Amino acid sequence: MLQSFLQSPEGKLWALRYDGGLNRSIYQDSAIPVLLSQRTRVTLAQLNAGFTLLAAIAGFKYRMVDCKLIAIGGAATTGTSVNVIGTRAAAPVQLIVAAVARLTQSVRNRTGTPFATAGAESLTTLADGASFTPLDVNTGITVITVGSAMTVMTSIDVDLSFAIEE
User: How many structural domains does the chain have?
Assistant: First the structure.
């Protein structure tokens, strides 16, 4: 599980992770983005309050590549949607919007894939691929409930694939 990032004195990116009982570090040359993935179980209370999935890294920016959401412990109810939010041009952007009706227990919702209803996509993204372009430098990615506070489901799994770029 990826735990944190550090920068070397030269500004290169080091990713620290916990692996099988050993603390190991891996090096990523920031000039060559590498696809990373992080799966996070976000509790209902964290989701309703807003939860940081990826904290800002000084001097770097995130680019989302894919996202999957799974409702755990029941279907999402009451709220309008679950949104994954980034920052572009100093303003928040809704990278992913998952309508509450699509968040049924144990169903894996993914960007760009058909949902059970013909013609509907699982997770709504920005037009013209804008959800998958780089975000602002020094900003993170969060997930939050939009509308009323979500109820019934106990948590949501957010599986985010992303790259870190200069």
Answer: 2
23 plus 41 within the same structural domain = no
Q: What is the distance between the alpha carbons of residues 45 and 21, in angstroms, rounded to a whole number?
A: 30
**E strand map for the chain:** 2-7, 13-19, 22-28, 36-43, 51-54, 61-72, 76-77, 81-88, 91-99, 108-110, 124-125, 141-146, 151-152, 155-165
Look up residue 132 and give its DSSP letter: G
Q: Tens-digit pLDDT profile for the chain (166 aa)?
A: 445 555 555 566 555 554 445 554 455 665 677 788 899 999 999 999 999 999 998 888 999 999 999 999 999 998 999 999 999 999 999 999 998 988 989 988 888 755 445 444 578 888 888 899 999 999 999 999 999 999 999 999 999 999 988 8
